[in-house]
Every structure is written in C-alpha cells, then in structure tokens.
Amino acid sequence: MILKNEDLFYPEIQADIGSYSFDKGIEVEVYSSKASYFDWAKVSFTEELGEKVTLSKLDEAVVKLGYDGNLDDVFKGYVNDPVNTGGSSQNEIILKDDMIKLEETIITNTFLEATPQEILRYSLKKAGIQDYKLSSKVYPKKSIVPIFRKSVIDVIEEIHNLWRIKELFFFADKIFYWGEKPSQSKVYEFEYAVNIIDLTFADGLWELVTVSAPFIKHSQKIKVIHPSISGEFEVSKMVFSTTGDGFTRSKIYFVGDEAWRNNFIYRSDT
Fold this sequence. Notes:
- The chain is of the alpha+beta class.
- It is built from 5 helices and 18 strands.
- The chain is flat.
C-alpha cells in the first residue's frame, strides 16, 4: 500500500495522559526499537500549560498521530514519574510502555520441571499481564530453576541464560510478545519523490525520513523504492517527532543488503 503526500498533508496529534487530553501546545517524541525491550515517549508542554498539569506515576497514556480525524495509536503506556505533585513546575513527561510493569514486579519462586513458557506465564500473571503470545518452540524442561527477588525483565534474561537462547521480547498494542511478532495485514510502500523526504545510510542502518507514519512499527516489513536501495525490509527502529506548530516527521530505520550499501557508498563518493 503506497501513501502519497497529498494523503498526509495535514498531520494531527492527540495525547491522552491521565485525565487530560491534549491536541495542541505539546511536542512529542516516540522511540521504538528492536534493540530496546521497551518503547518510550517524551511529551513536552508549553510553560503555561505545564504548570497546570498534575500527574501520578502509572497514570495511563496514549499518544496518537494521524490525518483528517483518522488517528493511529503510536504509543500506549504509563507516566514514568509523577508530574507537578510536589508543588514545582515540570514541563516534560517521560512515558514507558507496559514493560514498566515487568520492571517493577518482583518474582521469588522455585520452578520445578519447568519450560521457559511456564516460567514466563507465571511471571506475566504476577505482573498483571493477561494478553501475550509466546514462542511455540519446544525447549527441554529444567529440573529446578530458583528465582529470588528478580524483576520479570531479569527473569526473562535468566531464562535466556539458562536455556542459552535469545528471543526478542516486547509489547505491541499492549500485547506481550516473546519469540513472536504481531501479524501484519499491509506492507506500506515508500517511494522516491512520492513520500520519501530523505534517505541516508549511517552506522549500519538506513534512515528513511517521511511525514507522520504512525501505522509503522518496528519488526514490520516495509517496501522501499529509491535509486539508492529498493526492496522489502524489516523495520529495526522508529522515531516519531512533532513540534508545537504541528510539524511532524517519522524516521524509519532498517538494514539493507551489502550490495546496495556498497553501491550507495560508491555513488556518494563519486
């Protein structure tokens, strides 16, 4: 599915945080990467607005971006630290996704004849996570796995160490994934001179700059048509940013094959 610039001309933003809803007077940055187990967002307020906002830790938050009244959730999570509850002004809020629950839930238990999935299900239940999709790979049972005062994040790392595996784990739309990925019904196309603003290569990753594309998530596939590189690629990282006047940009990072990378470097140097 290809998106044209005229389809994406009037970006809109909405941030629902605690009991507040904002559609102006804010700037937002949202970061989502395969290299990080959690997504985070930063919401900055104008000085006048920030002094009037009071939020508590773990207040729910949703950031939406879109066009012409059609908004997509680009971030779902919680307030990481209280805001203006101590009488001092604060004009910036850091939000984290549901991984904050796994970071703060402490597990102490001894698992007998257990698989990674059984340990994970127990730990997720303790953290209040009901929706999850775990790898269906078959792993041998461990006769005894003692866990003492570890966060669920540390439990996952312990599982990886004990079974000598490394599975990608993250939340998407408040569903926890371990060794699995969300299904994808559409592959969006980004084309030179149509909806690609800039495309560069640095530090092993391609960076594609476009207008707001909140429907793109890390680990999804996208199609790129550009003189420097073309094909279907898996998204490694997404960064969404806005300014107070509504200016919106999405940066999509992905890994390209060696032949395209060398061709790009060669032509850039000539």
